[in-house]
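Tokens as discussed.
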């Protein structure tokens, strides 16, 4: 019985949606409602897709120099490498490389300029594995291949220190002594080492502004971390499933160590991007709510126009809830048609932008790293948008339907 009542309500709502109205203004308001929802939905799809595209590009920049997993201590700064299960990790089929890393903040001095920078000591194969040659904008890796004390620095670091790779000026690094402390003589409280600047990389990330890459042997000597590391980086083979491998790695390492994936290594960045996307969604959803409120006016006028039909249905035994559902479904159908049309329109706009790069960043004469707005549609976003439309439309459709329940239109006898 309930199923028949549901089908009846859907059938009547569908007929009312396309039937000729006595008052043309109802069609006008319904059309405005549908167009408003369509435009709002298309805007929501396009903006979320653009945000996805921006996030993917930013994420790819950061992930270029992030290992698939970084292993550190839950408590403490360094740990002995001889007690670390390196061989067990390397024996995992999908693991490509396991690298020892020694790094910390150090004071860098070049001529009369000083900067507090993060010095990252990496093994010899690190530059090849992470394709540093593709990121070099000045210098080369010749000294590194010769295993000489040298530094490859970010473009921001090189700019602030005004490093000249053609000169023979050395970079001087200071690091506090871990064991011997001499507070009476500040100069004796630091280890001091020299190395030759050999290359400058550009990654468009924080690495450009704060990082210097050096051979791990040099950094171990500077920081007195013989036989110790500050972290271990695990790089997976192409196509490996990081989510499935993580429990296996954590099981091998135990509770002493903390395992972080690429996103957790830039947790603040990704949390910020997610928050920004959510705020954008809320703003556009609010605009969608304003567009959906036109449905209230359209349904209210339709209820008044169909009061004779309502009285007939009621006299034939239709329940009040069935008649209410007719108008609720009417509002949902208007919203659904507008939402589907808006989703298709937004998807077409995104596909055109992906294919032809119509909308540029900063105009045609600008020289941006991203020359056009990137877009990346996600099926989950489309589902969220459609669900939002249906929820908003259902709630707005309930208002006139609820007012119908309190009115005397059911007892109208002017048949």
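Sequence:
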């Amino acid at each position: 019985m309930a199923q028949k009542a549901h089908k009846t309500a859907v059938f009547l709502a569908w007929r009312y949606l396309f039937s000729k109205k006595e008052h043309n203004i109802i069609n006008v308001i319904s059309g405005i409602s549908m167009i408003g929802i369509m435009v709002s939905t298309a805007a929501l799809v396009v903006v979320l897709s653009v945000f996805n595209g921006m996030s993917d590009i930013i994420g790819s920049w950061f992930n270029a120099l992030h290992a698939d997993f970084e292993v550190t201590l839950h408590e403490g700064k360094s740990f002995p490498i001889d007690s670390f299960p390196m061989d067990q990790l390397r024996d995992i089929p999908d693991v490509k490389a396991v690298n020892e890393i020694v790094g910390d903040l150090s004071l860098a001095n070049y001529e009369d300029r000083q900067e507090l920078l993060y010095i990252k000591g990496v093994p010899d194969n690190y530059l090849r594995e992470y394709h540093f040659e593709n990121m070099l904008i000045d210098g080369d890796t010749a000294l590194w291949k010769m295993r000489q004390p040298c530094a490859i620095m970010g473009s921001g670091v090189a700019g602030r220190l005004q490093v000249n790779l053609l000169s023979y000026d050395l970079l001087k690094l200071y690091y506090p002594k871990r064991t011997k402390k001499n507070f009476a003589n500040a100069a004796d409280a630091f280890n001091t080492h020299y190395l030759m600047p050999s290359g400058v990389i550009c990654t468009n990330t924080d690495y450009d502004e704060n990082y210097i890459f050096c051979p791990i042997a040099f950094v171990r000597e500077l920081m007195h971390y013989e036989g110790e590391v500050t972290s271990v980086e695990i790089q997976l083979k192409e196509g490996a499933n990081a989510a499935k491998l993580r429990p296996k790695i954590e099981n091998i390492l135990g509770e002493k160590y903390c395992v972080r994936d690429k996103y957790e290594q830039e947790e603040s960045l990704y949390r910020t991007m997610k928050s920004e996307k959510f705020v954008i969604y809320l703003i556009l959803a609010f605009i969608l709510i304003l567009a959906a409120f036109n449905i209230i006016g359209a349904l209210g006028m339709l209820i008044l126009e169909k009061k004779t039909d309502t009285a007939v249905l009621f006299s034939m035994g239709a329940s009040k809830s069935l008649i209410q559902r007719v108008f609720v479904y009417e509002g949902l159908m208007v919203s659904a048609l507008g939402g589907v049309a808006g989703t298709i329109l937004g998807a077409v706009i995104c596909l055109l932008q992906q294919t032809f790069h119509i909308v540029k960043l900063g105009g045609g004469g600008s020289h941006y790293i991203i020359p056009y707005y990137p877009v990346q549609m996600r099926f989950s976003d489309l589902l969220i948008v459609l669900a939002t439309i249906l929820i908003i439309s259902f709630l707005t459709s309930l208002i006139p339907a609820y007012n119908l329940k309190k009115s005397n239109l059911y007892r109208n006898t002017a048949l």
